[in-house]
Design goal:
Blueprint: E1 3-7, H1 12-21, E2 26-31, E3 41-42, H2 48-58, E4 62-65, H3 72-77, H4 79-96, E5 101-106, H5 128-143, E6 148-152, E7 155-156, H6 166-175, E8 180-183, E9 187-188, E10 191-192, H7 193-205, E11 210-213, E12 220-221, H8 222-232, E13 240-243, H9 263-269, H10 276-287
Parallel strand pairs: 1-2, 1-4, 2-3, 4-5, 5-6, 6-11, 7-10, 8-13
Antiparallel strand pairs: 9-12
Helix pairs in contact: 1-7, 2-4, 4-5, 8-10
The protein binds NADP nicotinamide-adenine-dinucleotide phosphate.
Length: 289
């Protein structure tokens, strides 16, 4: 059984990976903040001593690096912090660990003028988060030839304690009869964390390296996605108001027409991306089970 160390395992994707991987692999989940319920080992990837200790104590076959500062506005406000986690953190791992690394990256490496993007599209990040993730990609490509970069976008799952979950925010707001504003000019392929976990599992089996794009099938605006959530969860969609990104006056600029083309990965992984409606229905049925 392969031994897989996961960084950032307390995050949205980390939870899905732990669930899918626990019976398939010998996993070593790690996170920066200790949580007695999640039973992760402590690891802050900005500290090379801690990485060295856990790598020599556990000798993993693969490291999946999910650890990241994903708050896009915070990255813009604190570029030093963003670079230390998203870039230098990965650099630390590469310098200590000789085996393959799976690095999660983002469609924010593109400027959002002409999505959906494939693996050959030109990168041009427009915010600090995108720049830090791109720098990490470049470093990994140049220094670890067995490693794999998987770009994904707009991850979601129903995880009650996760502030990062768009799905939870929409459901909770509508359940509380609260009006919400959702942008109708940001386009991506929202991706259920279980879908990307399955793609990562296949990539491990195929010992893939290089770069692939993976997301779910439908290319929708964030507003359309929120409407689909309301419909599936049988909530009042009239509470959702479309607005433009510019009206939000956010600190970091956002790519608008982002999203990913998965044609190459579909062939390599022999996998079909899921549809949003199927994923949401499955989640809704399980929330109500
Ligand atoms: N979410 C998306 O829509 C999306 C889209 C494209 C790509 N991605 C990429 O996919 C990966 C997983 O994303 P996610 O949605 O699971 O993110 P998430 O929920 O924000 O989780 C990120 C994790 O990284 C941890 N972390 C932050 N700083 C760290 C450090 N110095 N050392 C170790 N761990 C640290 C966080 O721990 P604390 O909470 O304790 O700080 C958290 O557990 C990331 O690489 C992200 O860039 C995400």
């Amino acid at each position: 059984m392969k031994k897989i160390l996961i960084t950032g395992a307390s995050g949205l994707l980390g939870k899905a990976l732990k669930t899918l991987f626990k019976s398939k692999y010998d996993i070593i989940p790690t996170s920066k903040n200790y949580d007695k319920y999640q039973k992760n080992y402590f690891l802050d990837i900005t500290n090379p001593i801690l990485i060295r200790d856990i790598v020599s104590a556990t000798s993993p076959d693969i490291i999946i690096n999910l650890a990241a500062l994903t708050n896009v506005d915070l990255c813009e406000e604190r570029p030093d912090l963003a670079f230390s986690v998203n870039f230098a953190g990965l650099q630390n791992i590469v310098e200590i660990f000789n085996g393959p690394i799976i690095q999660l990256s983002t469609d924010y490496v593109f400027d959002g003028k002409a999505g959906q993007y494939n693996e050959n599209s030109s990168v041009n990040p427009i915010n600090v988060y995108g720049r830090t993730k791109l720098e990490a990609e470049i470093f990994l490509k140049e220094n670890s030839k067995d490693s794999l970069i998987i770009r994904t976008n707009v991850l979601y799952d129903y995880v009650s304690e996760s502030p990062a979950s768009f799905l939870n925010w929409v459901v909770k707001s509508l359940q509380d009869d609260k009006k919400i504003n959702v942008v109708d000019d940001q386009w991506n392929n929202p991706t259920w964390t279980k879908s990307i976990a399955i793609a990562i599992d296949k990539a491990i089996k195929f010992e893939l390296n290089g770069l692939i794009h993976w997301g779910d099938n439908d290319y929708v605006s964030r507003y359309d996605f929120a409407i689909k959530i309301a419909e599936t969860f049988q909530l009042n969609k009239k509470l959702i108001k479309p607005i433009k990104t510019a009206e939000l006056n956010q600190i970091a600029p956002r790519p608008l027409k982002g999203g990913l083309n998965m044609d190459r990965a579909k062939n390599i992984l022999n996998l079909e991306p899921s549809n949003i409606s199927d994923c949401l229905k499955y989640i809704w049925e399980n929330v109500n089970a």
